[in-house]
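Justification of resources, computational component.

The compute hours requested in this renewal are based largely on the per-chain cost of generating structure records like the one below. Each record pairs the submitted sequence with a full structure-token output. That output is archived, and it is also reused by downstream analysis tasks.
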Amino acid sequence: MSATQNLLQKAGRWKLWEAALWLLALASPFLLSTHALIINEIAIVALFALSLDLILGYAGIVSLGHAAFFGMGAYSAALFAKFVMPDPLVGLAVGMASATVLGALCSATIIRGTDLTRLMVTLGVGLILMELANKLDWLTGGADGLQGVVMGPLLGRFEFDLSGRVAAWYSLSVLLLLFVLARRFVNSPFGATLKAIRDNRLRAMAVGIPVTSRLSVVYTVAAAMAGASGALLAQTSGFASLEFFAFDRSADVMLVLVIGGTGWLYGGVVGAVVFKLLQDVISSITPQYWTFWIGLFLVVLVLVGRERLIRPWTWRWRGGGQ
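The structure output for this chain reads:
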């Protein structure tokens, strides 16, 4: 076995603290039942950030239109529930499938060009889909959003309640499952080639790495995960709106990764927890100016350095490629 394979296997091994962390996360909707709704939101944002980190942190693809896949998954799951069948798991699969197809089609747009070109193309895709959703108001509800989405019981037994405990458990379970898959993905030889492409694309091509196909695959996988997060939000809120495609959503998830860090899977999780808690706490104190204080926090984070503020609590998390 080569040294590289040994390193990948070591990086892919689960630590005891990770198992304890995820068990605590899965139990949190019942331990903190009064905060189940925000736990659900954190899980969805964490999954969305995880999908962006796959292309940004591991493949070096900068995107400002990642909300296109989020919105596609949300509307697909909501429309499926409203007009076909309300089963949450089947709707989740439909949302992921539609986002996967969209990601495969859009992957051709990010293979060539500079980072600026990719920024404009990805942003344009999101804006086009938002306008389509607006114009097709007979199907999507237009500016009023798609309302009246009622989900059936999860696994045929667990009804979605107003407290949000079932929704939070559902979102956390999907997050954990896709996190495990993403972990296997980045700690494989395929993931190692992605990092090589991120660090130096020309050198990766020179040593025989099929850069085009690698980028297409990771972009499609990230789109599927973003679609899953959008589907979860539509299913647990019973609503889908044009805001799901908006630039603000793509910008917010980028801020989540600024807080948590790119190139390690827990960055999206940490960033989502910090971002949503800050948003919830500050907006309850000063509803009119909460964006100012979050902006100030981000400025301080960038000036002081994320490692100085966050690393004392998270430095052990960043073993291998996690």
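The radius of gyration is 19 Å. The chain has one domain: 3-245.
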